[in-house]
Structure formats: C-alpha cells, structure tokens
C-alpha cells in the first residue's frame, strides 16, 4: 500500500490549536502517514490584505509542529517566486512523491467552497483528494447548497469545536489581550519577540 500524505495549506498568520487539532484528526480519521504543513508564500486571494512576512509564518509553523513526529513543514511556497497557487504546489508534490503516494489536501469547509474560483480547479481535484474540515454545529446543508453537487474528491471531516481564528488572534494581540491556550507557547513567545500584529 502506498503512502497517504496529508497536505495542509494555509496562511498560518499565526498557526493556532485549531489548525493542529484539524491535522491530528485527519491523521487518525483518514489513516494518514504524515501531514505536511505548507505555509503560503504570496497568497493571491489575499493580495489586498496585510499578511505577515512569509519567513515569520513559516517559523511559527515549524515551532508549532516540532513536537509531533508525524507533522512536517515545507518551504515550497515560501521559496517560490510570485503568487502562490495550490495547483502548482500539488503538481510539485506529485513529482516529488511519485505515483505511489496519495495526496489529501486538508482545508476548512468554507475554504473548500472557494476551490471553484481557484486556478485550474479541475486539475487540483485530479491531483489530490480534498478534505473539508468542519466543526460540530457547522451547517452542512449550507455547505452542500453552496457547492455544486459535492465533488467525489471532497470528503467532509468533523473536528472538535475550537472557536479560534487567526484573525481573532491578531486582533487580541493588537488589543493587548492574552493568547495563552490559543496558540502553542513557542508561537506565543515568537509573536512577542518579533512584535507581530501590534
């Protein structure tokens, strides 16, 4: 049997426990061998938003995942010139890992709805199976109504409810509110040292 590799792309600005719980659930529920975190370089869908430096987001992801031997982090998108596209990343991973590896792209259910607006949407479905992570209480009827008939390459995965978002964490830092228990301690220290989100 070939390798089953989870690919978790995201801005990770910053990475938080919600991301880590989702990756761990994917490992267990989908019987994955490993989850590769891929911080975006220049996210084309966030061109008009302020996003922290790629190197800071990459290092926070390394810090947050270091204690789990089945998590790893790729610089692939950080080091790529120009805008970052999932199709390019999945093609590169397919070349690196070979035909014996199954790719599972893990993202939030809301983000999965955006896939049809991504570059080369049909190809991304050929390259990987997509995992739409939801939390208890998420209205799946809304998801199913918004998506065209659910693509056969999309699996919905329930994860424990964690009402944590990177947007809220950035706001909390700006307001001087605590981050403890929302992000790993090492990420909290990194944000403080680099004076991010102030």
Would you summarize the structure shown here?
This protein has 198 residues and is an alpha/beta fold. The protein is 40% helix and 17% strand.
Features:
alpha/beta
Question: Topology of this structure?
Answer:
Blueprint: E1 4-10, H1 17-29, E2 34-39, H2 54-65, E3 71-73, H3 76-79, H4 86-97, E4 102-108, H5 109-113, H6 121-127, E5 129-134, H7 140-146, E6 154-158, H8 166-175, H9 185-194
Parallel strand pairs: 1-2, 1-4, 2-3, 4-5, 5-6
Helix pairs in contact: 2-9, 4-6
Task: Describe the structure in your own words.
- The protein is an alpha/beta fold and 198 residues long.
- The chain has helices at residues 17-29, 54-65, 76-79, 86-97, 109-113, 121-127, 140-146, 166-175, 185-194, and strands at 4-10, 34-39, 71-73, 102-108, 129-134, 154-158.
- It has a six-stranded parallel beta sheet, with helices on both faces.
- Helix 2 (54-65) runs antiparallel to helix 9 and helix 4 runs parallel beside helix 6.
- The model has no long low-confidence stretch (mean pLDDT 87).
